[in-house]
């Protein structure tokens, strides 16, 4: 039989070339096989668009767009050079550039489905967060320091929005606005995501005060207001300068709820509609207020929010992720040392570079925490992972060992931050991940 010539796949962003022998493997699978990080949240099912690539050269060697791809491209008005790597098969050389690099970029992709030039009414949760104590900080520090702190502030407070499937809508001075449910979803989920983001923000500002701002002699506090309602969303403005905008009474009300924190001396206030959207007895609530907001002829009921009554696994994971993966290589090498000590037979299954493998594992752990707020994608992602592990020769008995080693590595890396609740949350999440992987591996 004539030998099939390998195609050369060039990854332009990282200037790397790999040989691709398997005509039945997609370009996404080519990345995975060659340990090239390539986000693929829906596990190669043509749904999430995170595996998107720009084809720089060799376009004619690829299959035509699949039906799923055609739909995705039509909605987003993609030019023909943008493809989904999970839907692309090549019979010759191609040069590609991956277009989504980090988990936090994934959320902004929701905005691509927002109409141009018109505003569409969509039910969303709106979160306004205002920083207190900033005027003092700005008056006592150089503009350079203030800009640096503002940047840190936007980063640490933006992360909880992004990790909870929210979109950062705007920064206005020392205020940050997040939207949840821009591309749909259940009201209960969108409100819960916004609540979790608010609690994550509060945790993040405490850490910022105690660690990074400790020399600035300030104690920044937050005022957060969350509302839910039907707002108008679109890309609006001058024909030559349109920008994403969200307008309507629910937005103004969210802003006013936020402002009411000062008067009520509270940190987080949620509207009654947010409160009622989550299952009864879920939230730890303080005082309730009935207040007539400016521009309204009726009272709005709002509640002070302290937290969740029961442990929220996602919130626990989110708050520790940054710390755990600060030194990804150290985390991975500690973990694999443990695995190979407890299950020496597993070592032979790893054929590729262990440093790159370690990074793929830690990226995947981060990706799992991010995509927990998009559970439909998470399940599909775990399906692909379970199937690939079955091909690597991973046996069912390896999973408990890996789980144990991951938990030990997590506990050791958390150090003084570790506590029983946090460990319980990680255990619960990883048990779900491994049991899903095993389930899908069996079906392979
Ligand atoms: C929490 C569970 C696990 C996660 C999140 C995970 C994650 C990953 C990821 C992201 C990769 C890169 C390739 C791909 O995406 O398919 C990978 C490869 C691999 N994993 Fe896992 N894994 C898990 C459990 C296990 C277990 C139980 C074993 C058994 C020892 C194992 C052995 C391997 C092997 C052999 C490879 C391929 C390495 C190579 O190509 O050299 N993994 N894993
Ligand atoms: S669309 Fe390709 S991985 Fe989701």
UniProtKB/TrEMBL annotation:
GO biological process entries: cAMP biosynthetic process; intracellular signal transduction
One GO cellular component term: plasma membrane
Places the protein is found: Cell membrane
SUPFAM superfamilies in alphabetical order: 2Fe-2S ferredoxin-like, Globin-like, Nucleotide cyclase
Main location: membrane
Every Globin domain range: 307-442
KW Iron-sulfur (keyword) present: no
Gene3D superfamilies documented for this protein: 3.10.20.30, Globins (1.10.490.10), Nucleotide cyclase (3.30.70.1230)
Stretches assigned to the Guanylate cyclase domain: 125-258
Membrane topology type: Multi-pass membrane protein
Signal sequence coordinates: none
GO molecular function, one term: adenylate cyclase activity
InterPro entries, per database record: 2Fe-2S_ferredoxin-like_sf (IPR036010), 2Fe-2S_ferredoxin-type (IPR001041), A/G_cyclase (IPR001054), Adenylyl/Guanylyl_Cyclase_3/4 (IPR050697), Beta-grasp_dom_sf (IPR012675), Globin (IPR000971), Globin-like_sf (IPR009050), Globin/Proto (IPR012292)
SMART domains tied to this protein: CYCc (SM00044)
Alphabetical list of PANTHER family matching this protein: ADENYLATE CYCLASE, TERMINAL-DIFFERENTIATION SPECIFIC-RELATED (PTHR43081), BLL5647 PROTEIN (PTHR43081:SF17)
Sequence similarity: Belongs to the globin family.
Record-given protein name: 2Fe-2S iron-sulfur cluster binding domain-containing protein
Source organism of the structure: Seonamhaeicola sediminis
């Amino acid at each position: 039989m004539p030998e099939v010539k390998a195609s050369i796949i060039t990854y332009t962003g990282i200037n790397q070339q790999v040989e691709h022998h398997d005509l039945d493997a997609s370009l996404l699978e080519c990345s995975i096989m060659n340990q090239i990080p390539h986000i693929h949240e829906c596990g190669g099912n043509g749904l999430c668009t995170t595996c998107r690539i720009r084809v720089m050269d060799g376009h004619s060697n690829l299959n035509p767009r699949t039906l799923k791809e055609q739909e995705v491209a039509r909605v987003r008005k993609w030019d023909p050079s943008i493809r989904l790597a999970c839907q692309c098969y090549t019979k010759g050389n191609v040069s590609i550039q991956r277009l989504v690099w980090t988990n936090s970029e994934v959320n902004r992709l929701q905005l691509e489905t927002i109409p141009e030039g018109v505003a569409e009414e969509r039910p969303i949760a709106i979160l306004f967060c205002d920083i207190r104590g900033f005027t003092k900080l700005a008056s006592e520090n150089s503009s350079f320091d203030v800009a640096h702190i503002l940047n840190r502030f936007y980063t640490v407070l933006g992360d909880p929005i992004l990790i909870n499937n929210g979109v950062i809508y705007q920064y206005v001075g020392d205020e940050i606005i997040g939207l949840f449910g821009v591309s749909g979803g259940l009201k209960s989920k969108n409100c819960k995501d916004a609540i979790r983001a608010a609690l994550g923000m509060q945790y993040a500002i405490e850490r910022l005060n105690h660690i990074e701002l400790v020399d600035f002699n300030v104690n920044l506090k937050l005022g957060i207001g969350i509302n839910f309602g039907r707002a108008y969303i679109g890309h609006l403005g001058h024909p030559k300068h349109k920008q994403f905008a969200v307008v309507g009474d629910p937005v103004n009300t969210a802003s006013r709820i936020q402002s009411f924190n000062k008067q009520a001396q509270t940190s987080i206030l949620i509207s009654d509609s947010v409160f009622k959207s989550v299952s009864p007895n879920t939230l730890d609530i303080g005082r309730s207020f009935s207040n007539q907001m400016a521009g309204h002829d009726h009272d709005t009921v709002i509640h002070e929010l302290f937290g969740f009554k029961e442990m929220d696994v996602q919130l626990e994971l989110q708050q520790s992720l940054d710390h755990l993966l600060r030194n990804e290589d150290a985390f991975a090498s500690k973990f694999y040392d443990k695995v190979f000590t407890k299950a020496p037979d597993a070592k032979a299954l790893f054929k590729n570079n262990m440093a790159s493998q370690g990074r793929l594992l830690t990226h995947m752990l981060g990706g799992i925490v991010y995509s927990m707020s998009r559970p439909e994608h998470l399940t599909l992602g775990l399906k692909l992972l379970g199937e690939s592990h079955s091909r690597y020769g991973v046996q069912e008995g390896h999973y408990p060992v890996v789980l144990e080693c991951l938990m030990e590595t997590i506990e050791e890396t958390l150090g003084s931050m570790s506590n029983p609740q946090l460990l319980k949350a990680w255990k619960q999440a990883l048990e779900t991940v491994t049991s899903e992987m095993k389930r899908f591996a069996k079906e392979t």
